[in-house]
Amino acid sequence: MKQKIKIGVVCLARKTFDYEAARQIYGKIQINLRKIPYVDWEFESELVFEIIDAQKAAHNFTQKEIDALVCISGTFALGYLVLELNKIIQRPILLWALEELPYNGGKIRLNSVCGINLNASNLYKSGIKNYNVVIGDMIDEDWLDAIRIIKSFSSAHIGLLGYRAKGFLNLDVDELDLYRELGVLIDHFELSEIFDFRIENKQVQERLQQIKTVFDISGISEEQLVKVAELIVKFDNFLKCYNLDSIAIKCWPEFAENYGISPCAAMSILQSEGKVLTCEGDILGSLSMLAHKAIGGVSPFLADFSQINLRENFGLLWHCGVAACDLWDETCVRSLDTYFAGGKGVTADFVMKSGEISMLRIDYAPGEYRLFLQKAEGIPMNKELKGTYVKVKFSENVKTVLEKIIQNGIAHHISIVYGDFIKPLEIFGKIKDWNIIK
Q1: φ and ψ at 143, to 5 degrees?
Q2: pLDDT for 298 beyond 90
Q3: Where are the alpha helices (DSSP H) in 166-280?
Q4: Is the dihedral of CA 149, 152, 153, 159 positive or negative?
Q5: Structurally, what CATH architecture does the domain formed by 5-139 represent?
Q6: Rounded distance, CA 127 to CA 125, Å?
């Protein structure tokens, strides 16, 4: 389910043009917009002609706490109007131009495109660049999805369980800078808080049956099986108890040493249920996955770009057994195994399904946030490895893709989701004025 958002809509006009036609078009637009799911619409019912109209509409939208503003150029209008709206609302703006109507007596009736040209120029030259443009009969739903990402971040509550993995300095964030940039707040918890979290045996028994249904468990002991079930319940209840949207977990070495297993298999189960849990204390990995989830991505997961084959031109996206178990290719045996941490690994092992894949890394380097975006095609392969993985081919050479990651210093965790989820993130990056690496 996509992130729900609240969008304000206003239609600007000038009485020297065919504003009555614009009024009729605006009425039809309102009917169509109401059909879009997961959006609460706040419409300024009357056309906005003068500065005082814009100010009144802006204060009304502010009281309604909208997440973004759609400014329709019903006709060409005064250039002050959008500036007045922005001055009060200070939210991302979609400038929407209507297609020109048939001429009437040699006169341009709407001049709407020129109207958004004026508004875009005024905004840009005043240093405001968080606007996007659409021309035609329909709103840009990719822009709506970009607003969903912003909304998701502004309300996100992320838990950091432990710290980042030893030596993974490239996953560090400045928490107050992250709050300034996105409004995200991080809560820190000690690993002992999850180890000691109290649970009910009934829930554990239910999870035991679930695990046996999903996985071949012949590779683990009964004790390890019970610990996986217990950890699923602990994580699930921990998320609910602290109202967390995601947990970034320091998953090694303490889990195997102090709890008895690693958390990989438990994470695989929960991520198939829409929960967002990330490995190795990766907070920006959590945000990358939450961004995918906000725009409708199902079961996003973190992977390493672990291998390239230059001769056959493919890459391998792999991680040690945490991908959501519902992403299984339905061909190989989906199993639990203990291939690392001295037999205490307990990871999910399976090949992931084929299909269109979108990749995202929200990343930080000194002085800037960046987005790494890439599309790929997951292709079939045999189960030859432990962990969860998918073989991928790109539209360009795999070496070129890897060089973009390496040369730009992108962190080694990438959020993967099935489907095409690139355009909304490009718009999000433009709104935030972030560098986009594709």
Answers
A1: -65, -40
A2: yes
A3: 175-182, 191-195, 201-214, 222-241, 254, 264-271
A4: negative
A5: 3-Layer(aba) Sandwich (3.40)
A6: 5
- The CA distance from 304 to 294, in Å, is 22
- Residue 342: per-residue pLDDT: 76
H or E stretch covering 319:
strand 314-319
Q: What is the pLDDT of residues 216-264, one digit of tens each?
A: 999 999 999 999 999 999 999 999 999 999 999 999 889 988 999 999 9
Helix, strand or coil, per DSSP, at residue 39 = strand
Domain with residues 164-437, CATH architecture: Alpha-Beta Barrel (3.20)
Sign of CA dihedral 189, 190, 194, 197: negative
Count CA atoms closer than 13 A to 409's CA, side-chain side.
11
**Which ranges constitute the DSSP H helices of 34-111?**
51-64, 80-89
Domain range summary for the chain, segments of one domain joined by +? 5-139, 164-437
CA distance 56 to 202: 57
* Cα(78)–Cα(86) distance, integer angstroms: 14
**pLDDT per position as a tens digit, 106-154:** 889 999 999 999 999 999 999 999 999 999 999 999 999 999 999 999 9
- Phi and psi, residue 16, nearest 5°: -80, -5
- What is the percent of the chain with per-residue pLDDT over 70, rounded to a whole number? 100
Spatial neighbors of 374 by CB under 8 A, at least 6 apart, are 358, 359, 394, 401, 404, 438
Q: 73, 115 in Cβ contact below 8 A? A: yes
Mean pLDDT on 413-421: 97
